[in-house]
Design brief:
globular; about 20% helix; six-stranded mixed β-sheet; Immunoglobulin-like; Neutral Protease, domain 2; about 675 residues; binds zinc ion; alpha+beta
Length: about 675
């Protein structure tokens, strides 16, 4: 989702609950400033979520892990005149634990009143306290058994943040927006991301002048007792927070997406009539956008159904599956791209828990830039990212998802996370990046994933160890600050380039990143990528022709600062030698890292504190660069050595380096 921060919206967020009979900003002037898109963010959503549950306990039950939902039927009458929902929700599930007697559903317990509960059609006992509906199945159920629970209820969840009776122009507009934990405030469900229902049916009754937009396909519409009933079917797996209803006397217009294979799919737009022309102009690009994303991410995930936009009154958009809810008076391309991209990243592959919301929001935000790259070229992509930088503190990984502000933190979950997607693309390269996305999709489509799942897919395709990358960017804070210096020494036809890169950040640890460098020479550009991981690191390179200048990461593949430095101490790299150990202190094993400026004879030996030789680990030729040698705390005879201090002595190229090791027991 994306939200625009407007003064009235912020005021709304702090308004008392009882005052909220409508939602969102009033129509107004759209800022005509570059980077306007950077204002879209999740604060409004946070306010909504906080209202939904903050003042009442969010009770999740471990019992919920004992069943797997496969179907919901929502049969709801939405009476906006009396502001009343009267509903019947049926859930079908399979028992997946050893024994299940009580079925626990999340259900807000003040706004929603349970009228009756049935199990397989028969009246059942239940309790409904502290936002948890516990239904007695009447007998123990065992693994593999099917259960069906039906709940009759009524209530008015308006003001809890996830459901509202609003106004747009002079008509009532009914909206929902349940992410992250709001579904339970308007219908009983197992409200956990990782348990998607295989399908959902919605029978929604409204006033005869209203039209209902929802998930999947509209399969029926009829008049029943003076009410207009719309029957929607979602036949792709769906999370509870993506189940949505929007109702209004909409004007409906349709466009068509044609896939590469020639399949066609409707794009259905439900708009407020007074904005018809703006909507036709703004949404006209949608089919082209679906094609662009299908090229990059694979076919649109809900191709047998539809995509659509349904106007609502919040100040932004929400990626409801197959039917994004959109602010009714604004039609910017970035917002359209963002919510559409979520259909792949968020809806088809959903973050397993809100710790990993960046997998939804980072990808959707990055996709705004990706769309610009497809439509306007690489510079538009880079400009969009540049307008989107965040270099402050905090981890992208959401430490505490009960803190809604941190789930929808626009700096971290949106902006910095979009840079992580961009940097990942830079680190593995385009071919592996898109192949990695395809593998990630193949493994987790219509299910849920976390950061490690994405890392695994990207590592498998690229063959790279991306552990440090995800560790520093998702679980770490801040960003690297580099000082870059170079010195050209003519060498016949070529130039010897001495490069020094320092990492000078003081608020976090060292980063391991490949850094693109462009050398500008009399023969054109010469690109190299330098692996960088140390506080001070030297490189000596041969550049063809006469070197004129060197540029540090000129296309901005890294979220960083870079400053110019000077080289005063060019080391003789052919004889350079370094030795480090990690972990240290250690038990039972440590890894010694011996880095040589040039290949050649080398020796690595261990001595105890008294200088006695304990073991020779290396005695022979080693290649240039980093060599990692493990020591398992055993001597030359294979005996475990005593705890204490040891010295590793490395020798190569006429140099000698010593590292002090501590074996602790
Ligand atoms: Zn989003």
């Amino acid at each position: 989702m994306r939200f625009v921060m407007l003064a009235c919206l912020v005021a709304l967020a702090t308004a008392p609950i009882s005052a909220q009979t409508t939602s969102g900003p009033t129509p107004g002037e759209v800022p005509d400033t570059p980077g306007f898109w950077r204002q879209w963010e999740g604060e409004a959503k946070t306010a909504a979520a906080a209202r939904a549950v903050n003042d009442r306990p969010v009770k999740l039950s471990t019992e919920q892990d004992l069943y797997d939902v496969h179907f919901y039927d929502l049969d709801l009458d939405l009476d906006h005149v009396n502001e009343l929902i009267t509903g019947t929700v049926t859930m079908r599930a399979t028992v997946v634990g050893p024994l299940l007697r009580m079925v626990d559903l999340n259900m807000q317990s003040i706004a929603l009143i349970v009228d009756a509960v049935r199990v397989a059609g028969q009246p059942a006992a239940y309790t409904h306290v502290a936002n948890l509906l516990s239904v007695d199945l009447g007998s123990d159920h065992t693994m593999g058994q099917e259960i069906e629970v039906t709940v009759d209820y009524h209530g008015n969840p308006n003001g809890l943040g996830a459901f509202g009776w609003a106004w747009a122009d002079t008509e009532r507009l009914i909206w929902t927006l349940s992410e992250p934990f709001g579904a339970r405030t308007w219908w009983p469900c197992k409200d956990l991301n990782h348990d998607k229902a295989d399908s959902v049916d919605l029978h929604i009754a409204v006033d005869p002048n209203m039209i209902v937009a929802s998930n999947g396909l509209l399969v029926g519409e009829e008049m029943v007792d003076g009410r207009r009933v719309f029957h929607w079917q979602e036949r792709y797996p769906i999370c509870t927070y993506l189940v949505s209803v929007a109702a209004y006397p909409y004007l409906v217009f349709t466009d068509t997406y044609t896939s590469e294979s020639g399949a066609t799919m409707p794009i259905v737009n439900y708009v407020v009539p007074s904005y018809e022309q703006e909507a036709r102009d703004g949404y006209g690009v949608t089919a082209e956008m679906i094609s662009a994303f299908a090229d990059g991410f694979g076919e649109y995930p809900f191709i047998d159904e539809k995509y659509g936009h349904a106007a609502f009154t919040w100040g932004g958009g929400m990626e409801h599956q197959t039917c994004s809810s959109m602010i009714y008076w604004y039609f910017g391309e970035g917002l359209t791209a963002h919510e559409l991209a979520h259909q792949w990243w968020g809806d088809m592959v959903t973050c397993k828990s809100f710790h990993h919301i960046w997998l939804n929001e980072g990808f959707a935000t990055w996709s705004e830039a990706y769309w610009l790259e497809q439509s306007d070229g690489p510079q538009a992509y880079r400009d969009d990212l540049a307008n989107n930088r965040y270099t402050g503190g905090g981890t992208i990984y959401v430490e505490n998802p009960d803190n809604f502000g941190s789930i929808f933190d626009s700096n971290l979950s949106y902006n910095k996370a979009s840079w992580v997607v961009h940097m990942l693309r830079g680190v593995v390269g385009d071919e592996d990046f898109f192949a990695g996305l395809a593998l990630y999709r193949e493994r987790f489509e219509y299910g849920a994933a976390d950061t490690e799942d994405l890392q695994g897919a990207m590592e498998e395709v690229s063959g790279q160890d991306l552990g440090p990358f995800f560790q520093q960017w998702i679980y770490g804070e801040y960003y690297p600050r580099y000082r870059f210096a170079y010195l050209f020494v003519p060498d016949g036809e070529n130039t010897t380039a001495h490069v020094r890169i320092d990492q000078i950040q003081t608020n976090t640890g060292l980063f391991t990143m490949p850094i693109p460098i462009r050398f500008i020479t009399d023969q054109g550009d010469h690109w190299v990528t330098l692996e960088n991981e140390r506080e001070v690191q030297y490189y000596t390179l041969t550049v063809p022709g006469e070197g004129w200048a060197a540029q540090f990461d000129p296309d901005e593949w890294i979220l960083r600062d870079a400053f110019a430095g000077t080289i005063t101490d060019v080391p003789s790299t052919s004889s350079a030698l370094s030795l480090t150990a990690y972990p240290n202190p250690f038990n039972p094993q440590t890894t010694l890292r011996m880095e040589l400026g040039a290949a050649g004879p080398a020796r690595l030996a261990l001595h105890d504190a008294a200088g006695r030789l304990v073991r020779v680990l290396v005695d022979g030729d080693l290649p240039a660069g980093a060599n990692e040698i493990a020591w398992n705390g055993r001597d030359g005879q294979g005996r475990t050595v005593a705890a204490g201090v040891y010295f590793a002595v490395a020798e190569a190229g006429g140099k000698r380096e010593t590292a002090r090791l501590a074996l602790v027991k």
